[in-house]
């Protein structure tokens, strides 16, 4: 790879500042040094390339997005916005990346971007800074095991009693609002929320338990 | 599935989060939400619920946001079959299945998205960049091979003997001339990455390998397997003390080497062996699939060349962890129960919650095995076994002490399947009183051992054996006075029925129903010790066992040989033939170490 300016492969960025950054990102490190694999100390200061950034981001994008979606409380628009901003900041700061656990580094930056995004919003802010910090702390390990969690959740759904399963299906697969479900089954919205809460609790316990018992 | 440890606050928290998903919360609700999320339980509850909501968002409608990336294999093997088995609901079985399949499919799509990004970055890399350190080398036939420096890509329970200033680390490129001495464990290298000569190499400790100037490997001793990934003739070359082997693309070979004997096993593809002491090209040995050749120079008459059938069982890493399934059913459980164990852990399921535990099905009260770390599980038919030590250390420990009084006799019976040759603690009984240096005294230990090439108290002991230690607490005794080593090496990736037994002055170790070792040892088993499975100390990962275990049964008496044989037969297995069966499958490595 030559040290010439290239468009950012994921974000479509270009420009003088990007050229400057790319010009400072020379060649390779071993390909197996990415993701959760740490680089040995003796080459820790070896600069990283654009390819490295692309690969690291590709390898960690799911984890990063899962983390962002938790701290944004599954708000899709906020999550997309913060993901975009985070990718830009990661790219800008990539030369300073110390080579040690890209995923965790990206999540830390996403947390800062979340706080900045939250401050910039004019609409109601649901979570305060302190809560976001707490949430980010627990979201980090959760996002790390996102694949296992999804598999566990699928397995746990199978174990739900039919009535509970139907409630989840109405709400999330059929896309019915809580009001619509309450009309459908003839119960109050409060009762539906409580029922949903109960079923989610069952699923949460089941997922945690399944992870402990997880088969390889 | 019961909802445990739930309370009103958590319920309120969940309702608020659920409500926030479709309508704005009031100021007081926001305040309450933040308050509830600032407790440890609350924030964890919130995060796991939001994670569920993310999953449901994506399963209900395809969402281009990249979320979960489980390995496609997991999706295919776990999710889809589960979906296909989904019970029918009153609203229709098919809808439910589609939903679950949709969830699984979303993972696959996202996984392929991330993979395509990774692949594109790989393919964009210029070949010249990869070949920087690799001058053209001598070729078998006309294939032009270039190599990158080998890289260490994974390690399983590896113990290295330092050769120079550094200890190998995952992700590290190995430099020309570097010598790797693997004492135990399995190390995986990638050779020639990005070139036609790309290959995955697994080295099984004990073994020694060096890196040649052209980036290829020289293999000095031990066992290794290699899978070539490229296409072409003779694209990967490996030097051994007895000759050089050139391996075609898409081939799998196994090598066993020592100073005077080398074996070349070809499992897939083709390979050419050029013995060092034979000059003529007509003496080159072509191997076809399933063939192996042994070249030895043990006599003064030059070398001898013997062709024979290739054997994957010679190589631990050629077998999957699922090799040799242990299919047990109620017949086995009945046989064990008839022997009335005090402790009987089946590992079929976990009970409780924080901590989880394996319930004791024996007669002693309070002897459940509490989970430490995150053990894995493997299913063989209807039987589930525990898999320990892969990735991180994991273990099981009892909370209550056992036995209540000193025992002159006892038996500890179990099925053990080490995944590799290593020094690991299968089961031990330790004094819960911690020593000032953080260690604990042991009254009993059952271990797998390996070849210790560095200074170690077991350096002069036979390698790759089951070791049974029984000793009196508080009275340091030499190893020779308390240790028993099995007569033969254990089988890696194969199940063995092991019984450690004490009766009066006799200390006995039985493997597959045969008395493998015996000694005099008058010490009684100390009272009130604790049982630990999978590591040697309760609070550290030191000497972790890497392998599978099942059906641990502990008795306050001596099992008779008849009972042991009955148990083995109830497992659908045969009792070993005296002096023969124990060495089966241990391969050349173990013979060398015997």
List keywords for this structure.
heterodimer, A: 216 residues, mainly alpha, 9 helices, 65% helix, 0% strand, disordered N terminus, B: 594 residues, alpha+beta, Jelly Rolls, twelve-stranded mixed sheet, nine-stranded antiparallel sheet, 21% helix, globular, disordered C terminus
Your description of this structure?
With 216 residues, chain A is mostly helical. Chain A is 65% helix and 0% strand. Chain A is elongated and about 60 Å long. The two termini of chain A are 38 Å apart. The model of chain A is unreliable at 1-45 (pLDDT under 50). With 594 residues, chain B is of the alpha+beta class. Chain B has three domains: 5-119, no CATH class; 126-318, Sandwich (Jelly Rolls), CATH 2.60.120.1440; 342-400 and 415-485 and 503-552. Chain B is 21% helix and 31% strand. In chain B, a hairpin with a 7-residue loop joins strand 11 and strand 12. Chain B is globular. Residues 1-5, 61-147 and 581-594 of chain B have low confidence and may be disordered. The interface between A and B is large, with 92 and 103 residues.
List the helices and strands and how they pair.
The complex is a heterodimer of chains A (216) and B (594).
Chain A: H1 16-23, H2 50-71, H3 76-93, H4 102-120, H5 129-144, H6 146-159, H7 162-173, H8 178-185, H9 189-212
Chain B: H1 8-20, H2 27-36, H3 40-60, H4 72-84, H5 93-123, H6 127-130, E1 151-160, E2 179-191, E3 199-211, E4 217-228, E5 236-240, E6 243-247, E7 252-257, E8 261-268, E9 271-275, E10 285-287, E11 291-296, E12 304-309, H7 330-338, E13 343-345, E14 351-352, E15 356-358, E16 369-372, E17 376-380, E18 383-388, E19 395-398, E20 409-418, E21 424-430, E22 442-448, E23 466-470, H8 479-482, E24 483-485, E25 496-503, E26 506-511, E27 514-520, E28 530-533, E29 547-555, H9 561-570, H10 587-593
Parallel strand pairs in B: 4-5
Antiparallel strand pairs in B: 1-2, 2-3, 3-4, 4-7, 5-6, 6-9, 7-8, 8-11, 9-10, 11-12, 13-29, 14-15, 15-16, 16-19, 17-18, 18-29, 19-28, 20-25, 20-29, 21-22, 21-28, 22-23, 23-24, 25-26, 26-27
């Amino acid at each position: 790879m030559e040290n010439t300016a290239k468009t950012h492969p994921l974000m479509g960025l270009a420009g003088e500042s990007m050229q400057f950054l790319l010009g400072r990102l020379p060649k390779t490190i071993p390909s197996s040094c990415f993701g959760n694999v740490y680089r040995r100390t003796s080459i820790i200061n070896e600069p990283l390339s654009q390819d490295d950034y692309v690969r690291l981001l590709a390898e960690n994008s799911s984890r990063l997005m899962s983390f962002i979606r938790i701290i944004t409380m599954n708000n899709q628009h906020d999550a997309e916005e913060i993901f975009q901003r985070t990718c830009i900041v990661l790219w800008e700061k990539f030369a300073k990346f110390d080579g040690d656990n890209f995923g965790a580094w990206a999540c830390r930056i996403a947390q800062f971007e979340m706080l900045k995004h939250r401050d910039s919003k004019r609409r109601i802010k649901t979570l305060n800074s302190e809560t976001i910090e707490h949430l980010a702390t627990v979201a980090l390990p959760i996002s790390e095991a996102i694949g296992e969690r999804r598999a566990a959740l699928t397995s746990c759904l199978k174990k739900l009693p039919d009535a509970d399963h139907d409630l989840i299906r109405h709400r999330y697969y059929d896309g019915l609002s809580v009001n619509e479900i309450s009309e459908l089954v003839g119960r109050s919205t409060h009762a539906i929320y409580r029922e949903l809460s109960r079923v989610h609790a069952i699923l949460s316990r089941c997922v945690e338990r399944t992870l402990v018992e997880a088969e390889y | 599935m019961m909802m445990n440890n739930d309370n009103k606050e958590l319920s309120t928290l969940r309702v608020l989060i659920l409500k926030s998903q479709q309508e704005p919360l009031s100021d007081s609700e926001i305040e309450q939400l933040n308050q509830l999320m600032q407790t440890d339980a609350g924030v964890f509850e919130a995060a796991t619920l939001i994670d569920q909501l993310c999953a449901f968002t994506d399963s209900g409608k395809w969402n281009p946001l990249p979320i979960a990336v489980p390995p496609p294999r997991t999706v295919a093997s776990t999710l889809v079959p589960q979906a296909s088995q989904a019970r029918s609901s009153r609203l229709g079985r098919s809808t439910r299945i589609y939903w679950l399949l949709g969830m699984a499919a979303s993972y696959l799509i996202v996984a392929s998205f991330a993979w395509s990004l990774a692949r594109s970055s790989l393919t964009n890399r210029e070949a010249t960049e990869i070949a920087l350190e690799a001058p053209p080398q001598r070729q078998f036939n006309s294939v032009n091979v270039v190599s990158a420096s080998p890289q260490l890509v994974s390690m399983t329970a590896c113990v290295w003997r330092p050769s120079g200033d550094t200890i190998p680390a995952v992700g590290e490129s190995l430099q020309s001339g570097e010598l790797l001495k693997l004492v135990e464990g399995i190390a995986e290298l990638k050779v020639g990455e990005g070139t036609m000569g790309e290959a995955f190499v697994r080295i099984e400790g004990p073994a020694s390998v060096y890196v040649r100037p052209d980036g290829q490997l020289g293999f000095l001793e031990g066992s290794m397997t290699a899978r070539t990934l490229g296409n072409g003739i003779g694209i990967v070359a490996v030097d051994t003390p007895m000759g050089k082997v050139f391996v075609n693309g898409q081939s799998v070979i196994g090598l066993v080497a020592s100073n005077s004997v080398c074996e070349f096993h070809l499992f897939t593809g083709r390979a050419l062996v050029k013995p060092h002491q034979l000059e003529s090209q007509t003496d080159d040995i072509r191997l076809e699939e399933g063939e192996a050749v042994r070249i030895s120079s043990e006599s003064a008459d030059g070398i001898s060349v013997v062709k024979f059938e290739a054997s994957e069982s010679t190589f631990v890493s050629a077998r999957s962890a699922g090799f040799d399934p242990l299919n047990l059913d109620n017949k086995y459980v009945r046989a064990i129960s008839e022997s009335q164990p005090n402790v009987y852990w089946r590992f079929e399921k976990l009970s409780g919650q924080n901590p989880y535990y394996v319930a004791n099905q024996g007669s002693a009260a309070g002897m459940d095995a509490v989970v430490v770390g995150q053990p894995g599980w493997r299913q063989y038919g209807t039987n589930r076994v525990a898999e320990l030590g892969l990735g991180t250390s994991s273990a099981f420990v009892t909370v209550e002490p056992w036995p209540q009084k000193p025992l002159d006799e006892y038996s500890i019976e179990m099925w053990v399947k080490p995944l590799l040759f290593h020094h690991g603690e299968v089961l031990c009984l330790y004094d819960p009183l911690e020593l000032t240096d953080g260690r604990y005294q042991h009254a009993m230990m059952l271990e797998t051992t390996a070849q210790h090439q560095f200074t170690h108290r077991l350096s002069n002991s036979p390698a790759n054996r089951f070791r049974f230690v029984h000793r009196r607490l508080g009275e340091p005794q030499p190893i020779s006075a308390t240790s028993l080593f099995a007569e033969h090496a254990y089988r890696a990736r194969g199940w063995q029925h092991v019984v450690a037994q004490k009766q009066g002055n006799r200390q006995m170790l039985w493997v597959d129903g045969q008395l493998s070792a015996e000694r005099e040892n008058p010490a009684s088993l100390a009272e009130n010790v604790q049982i630990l499975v999978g590591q040697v100390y309760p609070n550290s990962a030191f000497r972790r066992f890497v392998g599978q275990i099942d059906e641990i049964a502990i008795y306050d008496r001596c099992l008779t040989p008849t009972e042991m044989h009955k148990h083995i037969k109830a497992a659908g297995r045969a009792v070993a033939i005296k002096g023969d069966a124990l060495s089966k499958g241990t391969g050349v490595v173990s013979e060398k170490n015997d």
